[in-house]
Amino acid sequence: xxxxxxxxxxxxxxxxxxxxxxxxxxxxxxxxxxxxxxxxxxxxxxxxxxxxxxxxxxxxxxxxxxxxxxxxxxxxxxxxxxxxxxxxxxxxxxxxxxxxxxxxxxxxxxxxxxxxxxxxxxxxxxxxxxxxxxxxxxxxxxxxxxxxxxxxxxxxxxxxxxxxxxxxxxxxxxxxxxxxxxxxxxxxxxxxxxxxxxxxxxxxxxxxxxxxxxxxxxxxxxxxxxxxxxxxxxxxxxxxxxxxxxxxxxxxxxxxxxxxxxxxxxxxxxxxxxxxxxxxxxxxxxxxxxxxxxxxxxxxxxxxxxxxxxxxxxxxxxxxxxxxxxxxxxxxxxxxxxxxxxxxxxxxxxxxxxxxxxxxxxxxxxxxxxxxxxxxxxxxxxxxxxxxxxxxxxxxxxxxxxxxxxxxxxxxxxxxxxxxxx
Length: 422
Known about the structure:
Blueprint: E1 2-7, E2 13-19, E3 22-29, E4 32-36, E5 43-44, E6 58-61, E7 68-71, E8 79-81, E9 90-92, E10 108-112, E11 115-119, E12 126-129, E13 136-139, E14 155-158, E15 163-166, E16 173-176, E17 182-185, E18 202-205, E19 210-213, E20 220-223, E21 229-232, E22 246-249, E23 254-257, E24 265-267, E25 276-278, E26 293-296, E27 300-303, E28 311-313, E29 322-324, E30 338-342, E31 347-350, E32 357-359, E33 368-370, H1 372-376, E34 384-387, E35 392-395, E36 405-408, E37 417-420
Antiparallel strand pairs: 1-2, 2-3, 3-4, 4-5, 6-7, 8-9, 10-11, 10-30, 12-13, 14-15, 16-17, 16-36, 18-19, 20-21, 22-23, 24-25, 26-27, 28-29, 30-31, 32-33, 34-35, 36-37
């Protein structure tokens, strides 16, 4: 194969590729790539050079010029709409769904006897399913917990008649006697456990002895390769950055990358190499027709125009966008008393459960109906409520095995448990 360089009669530079009689020549003419195979005249191969884009622009073939043109970014909340082959795309607003009744912040939409209705919020109430109508309603909390004179770290315990506040007591352990009475008590540490000497001391067991770990400023608690608990320095980020700086990890520390010049893009270069600012080649584009748009899929490819009224729909990182016709929200069917809520992907129906209360399990989790006595820990003598980071759960009284018990915490983030007093 040979590569030759030549000039046309008008001093236009071109290049010839091939072997023997199978050769072709290429040149640029007024921004257009043309080719010549010696069987005809120079023929346009690709599109004109692209316009200078701005962030959020989309390239399409303009109807009036038949050239690639940058469509300026739409305003926030707009969607790209195609008007069919031969027409330019535009930014449009998709009509909102109006099938649900209106409400205010905190209201709940339920399915009643004749359709969807709004259950207006009521402050300081709990949602309860009425046993007769099977419809949700707001009620007061059963067996109200004490809410006054509470201080940080106070606990609430059940004394056999009602829930009472147990104020915290410094340097004492929570203790339950054989009558089920819970109180704070001074307890001597077991033999062999050293006494902390300073604020912030941590006591840990190394497999043979208890060790006091003295706090160290600006360190993080970690476990080394030998399972020892140590204070460790976490690699800090660079502190000399400027507006537009980035940081990447080189395997041992964070390295600063200064801002690139206008129009540059951050380019990764695989494992073991630092990223760099680079200018991508936007001229390697496929040919298109009026109404097409460009999409990147390892290289720029042309998405043919959709039919009139369609909208461009994204499908995640593993699929290319597609033209689609949006549909109104379709609600699931429900029975009287059902509650509509937003699931992980679509709206879902929660069937009513007689005598239960609606309970929120936090962000990213579906609500559930729960027994009110379970939520409050029951009413048995000696039981107590402990907050597990999400909700109050019941800690049952210790077994009556002839040993005195005390409530023990291994870590501040763990739940307490009953241990034998030695």
